[in-house]
Amino acid sequence: MEMKKRLTLELRNKKPGEIKELVLDNCRADDGKIVGLSSDFENLEFLSMININLLSVSNLPKLNKLRKLELSDNRISGGLEVLAERTPNLTHLNLSGNKIKDINTLEPLKKLPNLRSLDLFNCEVTMLLNYRESVFGLLPQLTYLDGFDADDQEAPDSDPEADGEGLEDDYDENGDEGEEEDEDEEDELDEEVVDDDDDEEDLDGEEEEEGVDDEVKPLECLSFLVAPSGTC
After folding, report:
1. Which Pfam family, any one of them, does this sequence belong to (predicted)?
2. Which of 56, 77, 155, 203 has its CA 20 to 30 A from that of 217?
3. Which of 158, 188, 208 is the last residue of a domain?
């Protein structure tokens, strides 16, 4: 799908100034350039143009409020100085899978004072000796490069357990264990009640037997009335 047509579909009868997020992934750029996108998208904060066969960002319009720009899986090899001029408040830039080969190509990004995260996965520049140290030295405003900081600590937003799912799992496990313990206690109480009932039955049985003996013995003692030779 051509980029202009995709833009029309994404607008959905809205005005460009009402759009804050715009995804144009997998559409076709015109001769490797951005087309149809204008500075009328003045409130745009997130722009994604992944795998659109982009060769250059020279046609990127002025987007003062843009904070996150996704440009992975294109064929960009340079011309990044445009970003400092057109997107001065950029904080996240993804250039993974492009044709960036040299550290010097990234030098224009020094003019992006708010840039905190830069991704260069699958770019040739990542194969250079001391790549990470060189990029952090060139761009001191960076906090994360390829998802990790200078001390190799992973960025929080890339942690799959950051949303608290692990806590829910722990809660469920503890809850299950608590239920099992309660069930065990109930079973023990039931057994004690049954034992008490058995004891009461045994006592009742003994009392009944004793009662029968008491009734029989007086009859035996009266047998002398019938047989004089008998003794009680």
Report:
1. LRR_9
2. 203
3. 158
182 and 153 in a common domain? no
**Maximal CA-CA distance, the chain:** 138
The answer to whether residues 150 and 178 belong to one domain is: no
**Contact assessment for residue 112 and residue 83, using Cβ atoms and an 8 Å cutoff:** yes
Report how far residue 96's alpha carbon sits from residue 146's, in angstroms, rounded to the nearest whole number. 9
CB 126 within 8 A of CB 146: yes
> What distance lies between CA 217 and its chain's CA centroid?
85
d(Cα 187, Cα 68) in Å, to the nearest integer? 59
Identify the domain boundary among 158, 183, 202. 158
Mean pLDDT by 10 residues, the chain (232 residues): 90 94 94 93 98 95 98 97 97 98 97 98 97 97 97 75 40 46 55 52 50 46 44 42
Contacts of 97 (CB under 8 A, 6+ apart): 72, 73, 74, 121, 122, 123
The count of domains in the chain is 2
Domain that holds residue 211: 167-221
Q: Which two tokens stand for residue 227?
A: 């047989």
| pLDDT tens-place string over residues 170-220 | 434 444 444 455 555 555 555 554 455 555 555 455 544 454 445 444 444
Are 127 and 43 within one domain?
yes
Q: Residue 102 carries which DSSP code?
A: -
pLDDT at 1: 84
Question: Are 108 and 84 within 8 A, CB to CB?
Answer: yes
What CATH number is attached to the domain comprising 66? 3.80.10.10
